[in-house]
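Narrative of accomplishments. A recurring question from our advisory board has been how the design workflow behaves on a single, concrete structure rather than in aggregate. To address it, we present the structure tokens for one chain from the evaluation set, followed by the sequence designed for it. No filtering or post-editing was applied between the two.
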């Protein structure tokens, strides 16, 4: 046992070791500076630990280097160190032959994973790159490359490695000279060059080179025009790891540059190092310790990342990989490393933590287990970095819980993960592959198909990339079997390179690229010191900052909402401002009208802080009135002339209204205390204001500022009382300024002003368009909802902007499609279409573009409480798979958050409630502090005031929000929560429908029923109900299919152009025969179960019993599987137990013959007992081997059914004895154990590699129809032999030639995916 060291001596030793590892002077090291700040990271920490152990005899845990540990901290630990004791036992597994060696666990898993027939198999672990070189003489240059490479083959023994038929590594003592293949395209046409290069890449990038044949690398060259050479370089990772790859590229370049150069001799071969490690007692001791560690740790591992995998889970189609690349430039990478040093986190751990954060925010789970690839190169002997070999190992790392709603920031999270990562790294002598071997697949964690590979630090301080001498890197990719995504990161020439190699078609289109972009943005944010402790980091899964509104579309205007309109009157006084009827009002004339009315209001004592009701029909008077109210510093409150007097009275009382501007013909009865002021048609006072004989006694009103109220719009309230949304000038200008700048609104623009004044789309029409010097086209009040009138106005005045709810545009398009040529002429000037306030039908944008192809279609959204709009999306090509038009992203100076019921941010794809923040928020609800407090609140983490919209949405992978409807449009029907918008979006896909809406209405029993209201396309017959039902059932479950379909000529709309849901008829209140639904896809609610025996009627027809008996007699098996149906898992289990009780009570003689089983895809399965069961040949039941790799691989379906007990099915052909002998011979050779027909594979110690090698021999020898999956579907030799016999044509027993155990595997080559595989083997 080593004794503790003297503190001073310990410090000297530590300083010397640090200096040696970091390449610096011991005297320059500050003993209290954190090691990470000195440049220590995970790889150098391993080296430092080794140096300290060699110098002092003490083995510090890697965790001793965490938490900003200093040299002084390490010295203190050494001074009180007590060496642990253990009693390791070790036996070498290395063969005696010096040229033959046992593969490492990771190499063995690579070998297994490349086999075809496995899930995500059929690929090798293959590094592949392409480089473009320009030389004067391509042929001579290739000769130099070839000569230099052959010298490398002679120099490094692992370049001569193959895997023999026993699954062992073998180094060939000598090989013939390697010739680089050539494709000469120097005289080819550009098209031919592109075609050939694409074919070369397709074939060479995904090679599965025969493991038993040399070489396990591939070099090829394509001679191209203009002196270019495309060089293809691929290496099977059975040969080398990333560090070895870098070494080979550097040494190859040295030999090309100087053919006479001598390479340094490696201190040992890879095979020697493996033997030394296997015989090392210290290594054996470590493995004993680490095995105990992982035996406990594995139970704590979280599940694999839950990613939206689109590839079939059981697919055995060999995958292809695609690379998504990114990185950090030199400066950013330097800053990120500096931040890591400040927080005592290694760069590798920081990158891993950032990856885990992004995975979590993209819906993979709060805690995930990642498969991390480690490069476990020994620290001795000296010069170990000159050895080529695959020193790769793996470790399963469980990430801490990522919860942005409760964390203190990235710094704390990264420190926690850093500690966990290093603790797991400290027990890496037992690899992740070996850990998975010990797991029971039925009870252990799920597979881990997401890999994190870090080569940070491997390149050292080299100024250039290892392969930069080869030329420009034009392509690169790697493959790994049983892996869906490999995150690879390494530093190179001072910069950081990142490659995400993922399976093609395994994820939604663009998913990996979008997620990688978010990851890169997070890394850039982490170069900033403040980001590490920012609790809001990562709330936006895309790490996109709130855009600032740093534009001035009205440079000469003040901050008030009406200031741009005032300035426009001075700038363009003669330009038209209003077109109404046959008259035109210029900006100058409008300003005069506004001034006149403002004077009257001022004379009446109206000023800042007041609210003035405006009740006018759509026309010049309405526009002048609202501008006049703002001009005196007051805020306007729209009152529609059609509103009931009681509503007007309630609104005026709530808002404290004392004055109203009233247009001609408006007959509203104003409550007591409200003084109406009548206006002329142009918006001037209809009577001269009375002049007071004495000056006013009230003090002068303060001038309004940006925080003053600009307008109040009342919306419907859930309590039954309307709510007055109070908008300040600065809030409204936030939206107006953004939109005017974003869409370039200018003095030449014309907008058809269809929106009611009480609908806040009118705010943009008035203040945005007029503020830019443009004009409003006001429809005749009597024809306000006449699309023919709209087209006439568009043709006459040249409309450039459309701004309404979608229903109004759809009315226009419906009418315009009758005469598309005339409509196209009328809409020839239309450049911008802004749609908001309701769902946009998926077909509407393209229908409009057929009429006005030049029009730009924009979706906008938000809430009245956030100043008109807060989000936008440019509607380009509409994807037929969309449920709806995307909602978009927030406008500048505004923000959108999707939160769960606890106020935490929802990840990508998960629905939540939409909250709006930013400078556009209303001050609240006028006169209603309780409602204001409920809907507006400051978020405790974000520190931002948010408005709770009551809308549902979720993040799309492209960074936009998908609108899912209102929270209050979520209904519950027969126990199912249903979003009506989802049904509508699906139904609207039917080509025969123009419009549709779905509602939940009370049925005849007062329980909610789904009803669909449909409007057929003009001139087309109404689609049959069955056809509509089928359209829904193709995409939705039965409980979401409406019970009734009502055909309407059009859907009712509100004055604002939105669907009027309250006006939809209830068919159950108007149809006499309401007891039977038109369509009843869903059963009535279930009654509580009664615990009585099943009657004969409920047992089914009387043929069931005899049919079961006859099936059993024929050797068939009939199983009855019970599924959860509409029940939750817990409810299904309870219900199944009750049902089983009734079954056993009611099945009489059959009851004792039922066997209960747990099925793969149900709750319970009942199977009649076999009348003549076949006994097993004396062997205990064993778990069947499964072809799994890390991540665990699902064994494919076998080629035929096998008896579960490993015997022969009754009535089957007798087993061919020669087949049994052949199987025994193969297994005896591979396992070295005596094999008998009743031997189980588990008892023989057969691993998945053993079964793969056995399959090769049997397939090539006696069983060409044998599938790899069949090897894993049989537990015994007898069962497998019987199955092979059944695959052979029935020609009677015959003699087979004995199998040649030296036969090498097939040389069959195919384009397969390659990559690092983590093969899980069955328990022995």
């Amino acid at each position: 046992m080593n004794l503790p060291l003297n503190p001073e001596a310990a410090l000297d030793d530590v300083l010397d070791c640090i200096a040696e590892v970091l390449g610096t002077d011991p005297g320059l090291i500050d003993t209290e500076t954190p090691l990470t700040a000195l440049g220590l990271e995970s790889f150098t920490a391993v080296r430092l630990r080794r140096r300290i152990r060699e110098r002092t005899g003490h083995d510090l845990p890697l965790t001793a280097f965490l938490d900003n540990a200093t040299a002084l901290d390490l010295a203190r630990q050494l001074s009180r160190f007590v060496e642990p004791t253990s009693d390791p036992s070790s036996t070498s597994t290395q063969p005696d032959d010096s040229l033959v060696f046992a593969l490492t666990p990771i190499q063995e898993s690579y070998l297994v994973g490349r086999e075809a027939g496995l899930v995500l198999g059929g690929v090798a672990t293959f590094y592949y790159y392409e480089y473009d070189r320009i030389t004067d003489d391509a042929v001579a240059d290739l000769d130099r490359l070839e000569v230099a490479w052959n010298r490398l083959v002679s120099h490094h023994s692992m370049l001569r490695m193959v895997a023999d038929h026993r699954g062992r590594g073998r180094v060939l003592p000598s090989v013939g000279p390697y010739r680089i293949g050539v494709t000469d395209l120097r005289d080819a046409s550009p098209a031919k060059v592109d075609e050939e290069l694409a074919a070369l890449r397709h074939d060479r990038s995904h090679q599965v080179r025969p493991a038993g044949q040399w070489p396990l690398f591939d070099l090829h060259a394509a001679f191209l025009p203009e002196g270019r050479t495309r060089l293809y370089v691929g290496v099977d990772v059975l040969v080398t790891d990333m560090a070895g790859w870098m070494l080979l590229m550097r040494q190859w370049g040295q030999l090309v540059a100087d053919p006479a150069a001598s390479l340094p001799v490696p201190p040992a071969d890879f095979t020697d190092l493996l033997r030394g490690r296997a015989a090392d007692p210290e290594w054996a001791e470590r493995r004993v310790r680490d095995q105990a560690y992982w035996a406990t740790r594995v139970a704590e591992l979280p599940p694999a990342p839950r990613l939206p995998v689109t590839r079939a889970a059981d697919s055995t189609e060999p995958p292809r990989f695609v690379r998504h690349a990114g990185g950090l430039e030199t400066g950013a990478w330097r800053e990120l490393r500096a931040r890591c040093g400040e927080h005592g986190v290694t760069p590798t751990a920081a990158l891993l933590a950032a990856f885990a954060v992004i995975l979590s925010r993209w819906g993979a789970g709060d805690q995930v287990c990642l498969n991390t690839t480690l490069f476990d190169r020994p620290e001795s002997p000296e010069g170990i970095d000159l050895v080529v070999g695959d020193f790769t190992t793996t470790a399963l790392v469980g990430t801490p819980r990522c919860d942005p709603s409760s964390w203190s920031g990235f710094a704390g999270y990264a420190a926690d993960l850093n500690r966990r990562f290093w603790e797991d790294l400290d027990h890496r002598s037992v690899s992740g592959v070996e850990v998975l071997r010990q797991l029971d697949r039925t009870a252990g964690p799920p597979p881990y198909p997401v890999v994190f590979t870090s080569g940070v630090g491997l390149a050292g301080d080299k100024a250039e990339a290892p392969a930069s001498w080869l030329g420009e890197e034009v392509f690169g990719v790697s493959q790994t079997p049983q892996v869906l995504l490999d995150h690879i990161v390494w530093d190179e020439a001072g910069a950081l390179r990142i490659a995400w190699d993922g399976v093609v078609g395994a994820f939604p289109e663009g998913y990996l690229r979008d997620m990688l972009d978010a990851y890169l943005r997070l890394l850039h944010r982490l170069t900033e010191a403040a980001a590490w402790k920012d609790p809001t980091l990562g709330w936006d899964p895309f790490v996109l900052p709130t855009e600032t509104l740093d534009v001035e579309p009205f440079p000469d205007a003040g901050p008030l909402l009406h200031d741009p309109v005032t300035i426009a009157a001075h700038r363009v006084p003669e330009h038209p401002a209003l077109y109404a009827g046959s008259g035109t009002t210029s900006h100058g004339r409008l300003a005069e009208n506004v001034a006149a009315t403002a004077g009257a209001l001022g004379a009446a004592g109206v000023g800042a802080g007041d609210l003035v009701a405006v009740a006018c029909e759509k026309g010049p008077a309405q526009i002048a009135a609202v501008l006049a109210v703002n001009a005196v510093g007051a805020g306007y409150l729209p009152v529609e002339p059609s509103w009931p007097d009681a509503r007007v009275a309630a609104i005026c009382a709530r808002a404290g209204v004392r004055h109203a501007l009233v247009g001609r013909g408006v007959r509203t009865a104003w409550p007591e205390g409200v003084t109406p002021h009548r206006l002329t048609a142009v918006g001037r006072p209809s009577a001269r204001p009375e002049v007071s004989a004495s000056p006013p006694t009230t003090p002068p009103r303060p001038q309004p500022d940006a925080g003053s109220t600009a307008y109040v719009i009342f919306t419907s309230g859930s309590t039954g009382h309307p709510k007055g949304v109070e908008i300040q000038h600065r809030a409204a200008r936030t939206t107006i300024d953004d939109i005017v700048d974003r869409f370039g609104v200018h003095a030449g623009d014309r907008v058809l002003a269809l929106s009611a004044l009480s609908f806040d789309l009118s705010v943009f029409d008035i203040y945005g368009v007029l503020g830019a010097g443009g004009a409003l086209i006001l429809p005749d009040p009597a024809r306000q909802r006449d699309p023919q009138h709209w087209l006439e106005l568009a043709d006459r005045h040249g409309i450039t902007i459309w701004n309404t709810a979608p229903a109004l545009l759809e009315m226009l398009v419906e009418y315009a499609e009758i005469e598309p040529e005339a409509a196209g002429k009328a809409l020839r000037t239309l450049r911008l279409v802004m749609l908001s306030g309701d769902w946009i039908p998926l077909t509407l944008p393209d229908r409009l573009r057929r009429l006005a192809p030049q029009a730009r279609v924009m979706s906008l959204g938000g809430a009245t409480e956030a100043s008109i709009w807060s989000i936008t999306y440019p509607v380009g090509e509409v994807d037929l798979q969309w449920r709806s038009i995307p909602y978009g992203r927030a406008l500048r100076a505004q923000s959108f958050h999707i939160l769960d019921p606890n106020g935490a941010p929802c990840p990508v794809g998960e629905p939540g409630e939409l909250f709006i923040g930013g400078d556009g928020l209303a001050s609240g609800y006028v006169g209603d502090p309780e409602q204001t407090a409920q809907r507006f609140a400051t978020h405790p983490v974000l520190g931002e005031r948010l408005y709770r919209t009551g809308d549902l949405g979720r993040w799309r992978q492209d960074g936009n929000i998908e609108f899912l409807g209102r929270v209050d449009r979520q209904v519950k029907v027969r126990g199912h929560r249903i979003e009506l918008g989802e049904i509508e979006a699906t139904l609207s896909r039917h080509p025969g429908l123009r419009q549709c809406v779905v509602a939940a209405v009370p049925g005849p029993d007062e329980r909610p029923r789904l009803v669909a209201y449909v409007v057929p396309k003009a001139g087309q017959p109404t689609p049959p109900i069955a056809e509509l039902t089928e359209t829904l059932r193709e995409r939705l479950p039965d409980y979401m299919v409406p019970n009734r379909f009502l055909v309407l000529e059009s859907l009712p709309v509100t004055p604002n152009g939105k669907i009027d849901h309250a006006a939809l008829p209830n068919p159950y209140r108007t149809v006499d025969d309401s007891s039977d639904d038109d369509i009843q896809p869903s059963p009535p609610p279930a009654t509580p179960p009664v615990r009585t025996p099943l009657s004969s009627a409920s047992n089914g027809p009387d043929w069931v019993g005899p049919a079961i008996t006859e099936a059993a007699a024929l050797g068939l098996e009939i199983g009855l599987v019970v599924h959860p149906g509409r029940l939750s898992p817990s409810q299904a289990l309870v219900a199944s137990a009750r049902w089983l009780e009734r079954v056993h009570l009611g099945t009489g003689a059959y009851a004792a013959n039922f066997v209960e089983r747990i099925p793969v895809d149900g709750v319970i399965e009942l199977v009649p007992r076999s009348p003549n069961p076949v006994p097993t040949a004396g062997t205990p039941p064993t778990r069947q081997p499964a072809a799994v790799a890390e991540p665990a691989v699902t064994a494919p379906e076998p080629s035929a059914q096998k008896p579960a007990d490993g015997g022969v099915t009754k009535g089957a052909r007798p087993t061919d004895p020669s087949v049994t002998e052949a199987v025994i011979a193969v297994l005896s050779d591979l396992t070295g154990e005596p094999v008998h027909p009743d031997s189980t594979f588990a008892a023989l110690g057969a691993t998945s590699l053993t079964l793969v090698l056995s399959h090769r021999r049997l397939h090539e020898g006696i069983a060409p129809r044998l599938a790899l999956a069949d090897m894993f579907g049989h537990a015994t030799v007898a069962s497998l032999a019987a199955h092979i016999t059944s695959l052979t044509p029935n020609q009677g027993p015959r003699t087979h030639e004995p199998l040649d155990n030296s036969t090498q595997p097939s040389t069959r080559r195919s384009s397969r995916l390659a990559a690092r595989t983590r093969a899980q083997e069955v328990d022995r």
